[in-house]
Amino acid sequence: MEPELPSDATMLSVFRDAQEHLREQKFVAEKASYTAILLPRDEPQIRAFNCGDCSLGHRSPQGEITWLTETDTLANTFEAFGIVPDASKRHIVARTLNPKRFQLPSVSTIQGASAGSWVLATDGYRYTDIDDDGRSIDDRSYLLLGTEVESQSDLRHTNLFVRST
Hints:
The chain is α+β, with helices and mostly antiparallel strands. The protein has helices at residues 8-24, 74-80, 123-126, and strands at 34-38, 45-51, 55-59, 65-67, 106-111, 117-121, 142-145, 149-152. The longest helix has 17 residues, at 8-24.
């Protein structure tokens, strides 16, 4: 018998506890972005929890990615009001996991796909920005979940965490 997935309320409680832990540990200036998913083995739907500039996407067998969640950046806020932002607004995060106050993640129910992989990625992977020397100016970490797990983390950062039950 498969274990039951946690409810949305349980997941939000986990995120709230993480936020309180940051405050208790005196990480008063730290901020984090996250995308967490509940991916049941035999269900047609997944649940996605998104806060900050990380994204969830689906990669087809041909390698094309369809992004399923929006990043919480000032650029997206501007676009929602019909304002065309300049590129710098893509790097200003509107919501984060931070010790000062709890910010609810967006919660989505997404239909599963029979083929391809799920992509959890930083904004640097989704929106490639390159400096004058041709180097990425942002973390480009990603995680692919399909029949096998593949990940690539920017060597400057250790920010991918995978928990499977």
